[in-house]
């Protein structure tokens, strides 16, 4: 029987949980990013917020980079800690600038993504990742 109050960690279980979180969060965020990618390549006028003053096209491009490219890196577990940084920044902008005056129920999804990205920044990608294979190879 599993001891509910045990504080020791099993590294394999932890890596499996990190893998599930990485793949789930990345897949969900890619679905948000693909709609933005379509908007970017649709060709017409871009109607996207410019919260940091770099222009609508640049703001959309930065969002697409974070939500598609960085999420793909998370999905495969490559440069995981580095890939979380643009995603964290994107969620901070979404939660505190874009939806800053909105009620918590509007910000809730962005906050949840932000918390998962912070978790992945701290934990890294785990054993089941390209990062692990690279670090293992560099040890020998």
TrEMBL record:
Give the location in the cell.
Answer: Cell membrane
What does the record say about its membrane topology? Answer: Multi-pass membrane protein
Q: Which GO terms describe its cellular component?
A: plasma membrane
Q: Which parts of the chain span the membrane according to its record?
A: 12-34, 54-75, 82-99, 111-134
| InterPro entries found in the cross-reference section | DoxX, DoxX-like_oxidoreductase
Q: Which UniProt keywords apply?
A: Cell membrane, Membrane, Transmembrane, Transmembrane helix
- This protein's record includes keyword Flavoprotein: no
Quote the PANTHER family the UniProt record gives: INNER MEMBRANE PROTEIN YPHA-RELATED, OXIDOREDUCTASE CATD-RELATED
Q: Which family is it part of?
A: Belongs to the DoxX family.
Name of the molecule in the record? DoxX family membrane protein
